[in-house]
Amino acid sequence: MTLRGKHLFGADGADIGEVKDVVGLDGSAPIWLSVKTGVFSQRLVPFAAISESDDRLETELTSGHVKSAPKVPSDVEPVGDDLDALRQHYRIEPP
Question: Domains in the chain, ordered, with CATH?
Answer without folding.
Answer: 7-90 (3.90.50.10)
